[in-house]
């Protein structure tokens, strides 16, 4: 059986990324796919990009990776752009949209937020119709029709759901989880590049990491939006949530 680790939403949090990569290595998982948002909200976007380039077999573009490479009016974006430098920003701008392949007879399709856009946000509690749309294809993919397995990042909520005979999963976030304050990633296990039906599994993995070190790095770097970032790391509560 083959195993692939799927990580996403690192958001410049180096201690979380290092803890996840150590956990993946300890499990002897040979391949790593990254579903984007390597950069921002945390302070180490530059280092996160460098580590992902070295360690991941495939990397796709997230919404942060997309808009940070463009002109912006926001101070926080300017701060991350300065940290990244032109070469890394070019790398991020050229990342592909998605990944698809067969594993244990199942067509698997991975993307950052939806098969249509890096910006279309679909939560695990959204309507069944919206969640079913995540199995659809688009001009970004070679294979037409519905996938058997769809996986994404973006919402920072790790879950697995079976919907109408198909499997939907979210990796959660490595560097900015918004339910449990521990880094999250997924492991897919099956027969790689095989169209013959065989056993297949998805495992969600939680990895504790040094949250206070991640916060101290942000403090030391004078990162903007620090208070909201600290709250999210310590509590797993989204900064935009009311109450």
From TrEMBL:
InterPro entries: Ap4A_hydrolase, Calcineurin-like_PHP_lpxH, Metallo-depent_PP-like, Pesterase_MJ0912. Belongs to the metallophosphoesterase superfamily. YfcE family. It comes from the Bacteria. Pfam families: Metallophos_2 (PF12850). This is Metallophosphoesterase family protein. It comes from Paenibacillus terricola. Residues 3-189 form the Calcineurin-like phosphoesterase domain. Signal peptide: none annotated.
């Amino acid at each position: 059986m083959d195993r692939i680790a799927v990580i996403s939403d690192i958001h410049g949090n180096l201690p979380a990324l290092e803890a996840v990569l150590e956990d993946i290595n300890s499990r002897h998982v040979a391949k790593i796919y990254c579903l984007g948002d390597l950069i921002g909200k945390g302070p180490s976007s530059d280092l996160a990009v460098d580590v992902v380039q070295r360690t991941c077999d495939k990397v796709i573009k997230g919404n942060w990776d997309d808009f940070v490479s463009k002109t912006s009016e926001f101070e926080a974006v300017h701060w991350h752009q300065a940290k990244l430098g032109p070469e890394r920003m070019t790398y991020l701008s050229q990342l592909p949209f998605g990944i698809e392949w067969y594993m244990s007879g199942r067509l698997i399709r991975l993307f950052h937020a939806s098969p249509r856009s890096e910006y279309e946000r679909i939560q695990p509690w959204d309507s069944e119709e919206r969640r079913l749309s995540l199995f659809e294809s688009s001009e970004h993919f070679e294979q037409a029709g519905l996938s058997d397995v769809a996986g994404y990042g973006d919402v920072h909520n790790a879950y697995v759901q079976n919907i109408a005979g198909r499997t939907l999963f979210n990796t959660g976030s490595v560097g900015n989880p918004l339910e449990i304050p521990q880094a999250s990633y997924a492991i897919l296990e099956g027969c790689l590049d095989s169209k013959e039906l065989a056993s297949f599994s998805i495992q969600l993995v939680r990895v504790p990491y040094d949250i206070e070190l991640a916060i101290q790095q942000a403090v030391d770097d004078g990162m903007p939006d620090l208070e909201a970032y600290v709250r999210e790391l310590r509590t797993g509560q989204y900064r935009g949530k009311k109450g």
